[in-house]
């Protein structure tokens, strides 16, 4: 169905884009799925696992071309809601939808500036929703032709450089007591939605990296050598995704397991060709296409959105005293940030179409 957006203020229109993405990511979906994006060199997969009643992981990719023939901006993100805290799945959804909105809003800035603005806006949006009593981890790749790819990390989702026959290199450090400060335990010191004091890790992808794997801890909790061996020996990305997802289940499936695999070399080739003006968003279950329409001044504004029949995210006044993501915890910030990291809202004129990817699969228990 199509829903008209009649609000006249830029803020309302910016919120409409972010809410549309959030609603789409919150739709009813199978417990397991994998999307091999044939027009985009990536595999996105997620699995609820064997011991969780809800999948609080979110995996999504965005490709933005402001106008026809322009070089696209690419973002691939995984987020893991902190299940022991408040509304982990909703926090992960809000983290990605607000991250994507800020990338669109700041599309004319440098890549690292866009990364900083996007993670700041995501942190602010999740904090506004949960008040520090809920949050999500986030790992992301940003790609723009002509610039070195950038990765962002907050929490304990991870990013690996990999490829067939390539030595696996872990590019991120967990924001845990054990890894961040050399202590003991997996309690998280940082996460999206913590409020004041957030210090995201932003760096360039090492020169020569062929592929990247973005994982939640349901994937990388398995033995590090085993994970590296699977990535090293898999003949192609789909096989690596299938094998890691199956292995996570064979090892007990104790948590939601999600992975995004990106072919950087193919991405460079596609980006060089350019794309029609517009926005595409992928997740493991399908694709959402958004037509980009600008007026003479090229000031975007939201015209219409296609929204699935899914209840929108709403704040909940319930307070909880335990802040744990599975076996992990998190410190609650002492006060809200004194600065407002939210970007200035911008008009966005959008026409959104949602379609199910033809290659969607619910998955099975067999490895490939």
Automatic annotation (TrEMBL):
Residues 41-264 form the PPM-type phosphatase domain. It comes from the Bacteria. SUPFAM superfamilies: PP2C-like. Residues 322-335 have a biased composition (Basic residues). Pfam families: PP2C_2. Residues 337-368 have a biased composition (Basic and acidic residues). Residues 304-368 are annotated as: Disordered. This is PPM-type phosphatase domain-containing protein. The lineage of its organism: Bacteria, Pseudomonadati, Pseudomonadota, Alphaproteobacteria, Hyphomicrobiales.
